[in-house]
Amino acid sequence: MYKLFFSKIITNSLFFSSGICLLLQFVGCVKDIDFDQINDVELAPVFDVNFVYAKFDTDVFHQNSTVFVPEVVVKDTMSYDLLGIDFAVKHLEKVELTFEFENTIERDFEFDFGFLNSEGERVGPTYTMIAKQGNGRSTVPVTTIKQITMSGGVIDEVEFATKLVSSLRIHNVTGSLQGVFQLRSKGSYYINYKL
Amino acid sequence: MFLWFSHIWFVVRWSVSQILSLTICLILFKSIGYSQNKETLYDFTDIPQSLMLNPGAEVRYKYHIGIPFLSQISISAGMRGASLYDVFADDDEESDINNKIENTLNKLTNNDYLSITQQVELVNFGWRSKKNNQVYFSGGAYQELDAIGYFPKDFAALAYQGNQDLVNQVFRFSSIAGSVELLAVYHFGYTKKVNKKIILGARAKLYSSMFHVRSAKNKGFFTTQEIPNRNNIYQHIISNADITIRTSGYRALRDIEERGADRTDEGVDQLIGRGLLGGNLGLGVDLGGTFKIDPHLSITGSINDLGVIFYTKDVETYRLRGNYVFEGFDTPIQFSGEAPQNFLDELEEATSIDVEDNSYLVMRPLKLNGSFRYSFNKYKVDSCECYIKGEQPPFLDAFGAQLFMKFRPKRPQYAMSLFYYKRFFSFLRTKLTYTFDDYSYYNLGFVVSTHINKINFYISANNLIDYGNLAKARGISVQLGFNVIM
Question: Which of B232, B325, B341, B348 to mutate to test the interface with A (most CBs of A within 10 A)?
Answer without folding.
Answer: B232
